[in-house]
Fold this sequence. Notes:
This protein is α+β, with helices and mostly antiparallel strands.
Amino acid sequence: MSDRRPRAAWRRQPEPPASTAPAAQSEQRPSVIQATLYRDGRRVSSPGTLAETFRQLREHPDGMAWIGLQRPTEEELHSLAAEFDLHELAVEDALEAHQRPKLERYGDTLFVVLRAARYLDAQEEVDFGELHVFVGPDFLITVRHGAAPDLSAVRRRMEANPDLLALGPEAVLYAILDAVVDGYAPVVAGVQNDIDEIETEVFGGDPAVSRRIYELSREMVEFQRATRPLVGMLHGLMAGFAKYGTDEELQRYLRDVADHVTHTSERVDGFRQALTEILTVNATLVTQQQNAEMRALAEAGFEQNEEIKRISSWAAILFAPTLVGTIYGMNFEQMPELGWSFGYPFAVGLMGMVCVSLYVIFKRRDWL
């Protein structure tokens, strides 16, 4: 990738001015973030349009163009593809976005897809962005889909180190990789803090914690998809050091980035495992709480049944004398035993005997 070849060997010849007019019109759109021309690691110019960038790069064969776009139009990408001979499959991927992290080589051009991430403190969630990078012998094109990463910081860093920038587009690629991987560190710290809070909420009985665990678990799945393929990509780049004559300084640089992304990937795997365990513990605690509530309801129902038994027993006991008294209080002239001298004691004794009998029966059944 570091071999410098004459531009005529890999780039299409310039189109006649009449055929480039439509492209020039589309290049006025605000999706061109910045186009800069460098020579020997120093900024030469900052063209305002893609057409001007193409023209100046043709005039300076020993220069390097760094073009940054965000959500470009189809016309803009096709204009870049025509000028820099970009493969149509890579252009299609850059237009559609939602790609997995990967590294593809098309002749002298390297196509890299990265998933950047940033932690939003206010929402306590992880926001993912997508970055596509085209790296050629004397150009680097970045296509952003999302807010992350901040490539302006990468540009300032590289311009402050002309010796590193003079190593060419691959040096910029490694700086971008480093920025993406370094951007994972605040995300890891934010997720670790979220997990600590979730553990406290789980044992504190917060009913909303299950939803938070689920949402954070989904974010960790996305985080894994961003970091795990990056490990293999970086090792693939390191495997090509000898073949493509990568500068020794860049080799050390890339190995450091690979170490960082490996560490981050391991942390993300640990987070996902921890969230799985926390979700299991939370489910257990919720089940225990539900069982305790059901047991309390059952005990309350049992006590209520006992009270009903007592009330029903006393009601039955009191019903017997009430029935006898009600019958003999009807004031009929022709009623049995009205003229019997022992009628009253017999009625009172009967009522007492019935009440005592019912009391004994209910007492033996533990209703009283």
